[in-house]
Amino acid sequence: MNHYPRVIYVILILLLISCKEKTNTKKIETKETAEEWISLFNGKNLDDWVVKIKGHPAGDNYKNTFIAEDGSLKVNYDEYNDTFNSTFGHIYYSKPFSSYKLRLQYRFTGKQLSDGQSWATANSGVMIHCEDPKKIGLDQNFPVSIEVQLLGGLGTGERPTGNLCTPGTHVVLDNDIATDHCFKSSSKTYHGDQWVKLEIEVRNDSIIKHFINDEEVMRYYKPQYGGKVDYNNEYWKSLETQPLKSGYISLQSESHPIEFKNIEILEL
User: Fold this and answer.
1) How far apart are CA 212 and CA 214, in angstroms?
2) Mean pLDDT calculated for residue range 213-225
3) Which residues form the 3-keto-alpha-glucoside-1,2-lyase/3-keto-2-hydroxy-glucal hydratase domain (predicted)?
4) Where do the domains of the chain lie?
5) Average pLDDT of the chain to the nearest whole number
């Protein structure tokens, strides 16, 4: 009796089953690894964002400091009459986050207000793990947070961006608790009004990484409360060394116009 046809039939069935399993596996892997980035800014208005400016209650967008225009979220000083008067401001996304990737593009434009601090020229930031904007002191300069500092080039010389500043916080950097206020990244300098891509990877209270134009420029560990705060300092001091696990995301106003666009988040 010739068994070859039956053997061939069995082989074909096995091949079909194998191909089907590979196809299903591929579909599962694709589904599991797909990155679902969510836009935080619709390009049209400031819905889902909360403004807090020094000297003004949360929700008061003093002199239209933050506006949505041409698809960008802009820090705008048209109504300031060239006088900043230390009205440091932040605009917060309305929901806190813990572990995520945040990406956006930014560029500095125009000129700094005449009475802005010299260090604030082409200076802004993305604040992460921020305290609740509705609980910030009326005259508080900056939220307790981790600041991803953004600096523009001044035409000559080096001025890295994607740096780290720590208002009311500390981190572990190079295996030690870092208690200075600001730390330089390894990024290049970006002069003029060119768009720069920023990405931040935040893993709860474990590790945080900064990327500029897809290049990692800084990483540090174990964000925690620590250092002096210009409002309710005794309260924050009582939290010193406790891990900073989550918080709000905010964009900064420090006296130099800046624009942000394509603000997206991927929760991890």
Assistant:
1) 5
2) 98
3) 36-265
4) 1-31, 38-267
5) 91
**84-121: b (≥16 Cβ within 10 Å) or e:** beebbbbbbbeeebeebbbbbbbbbbeebbeebeeebb
Which residue in 133, 132, 267 sits closest to 203, CA to CA?
267
For 35-74, what is each residue's pLDDT tens digit? 899 999 999 999 999 999 999 999 999 999 999 999 999 9
Q: Do 250 and 91 form a contact (C-beta atoms < 8 A)? A: yes
**Cα dihedral sign, 96-36-209-256:** negative
Burial of 163 (0-12, 13-18, 19+ CB in 10 A): buried
Count of Cβ atoms closer than 10 Å to residue 82 Cβ: 11
Q: Which two tokens stand for residue 228?
A: 């002096």
Residues 147, 165 contacting (CB under 8 angstroms) = yes
**Half-sphere exposure at residue 225, Cβ-oriented, CA atoms within 13 angstroms:** 19
**Complete DSSP assignment for 129-181:** EEPPGGGS-TT-SS-SSEEEEEE---SSS----SEEE-TTEEEEETTEEE-SS
| CATH superfamily ID and name for 38-267 | Exo-inulinase; domain 1 (2.60.120.560)
126/109 Cα distance (integer angstroms)? 17
What type of residue sits at position 181? H
Distance, in Å, from the CA atom of 99 to the CA atom of 128, rounded to the nearest integer, reads 11
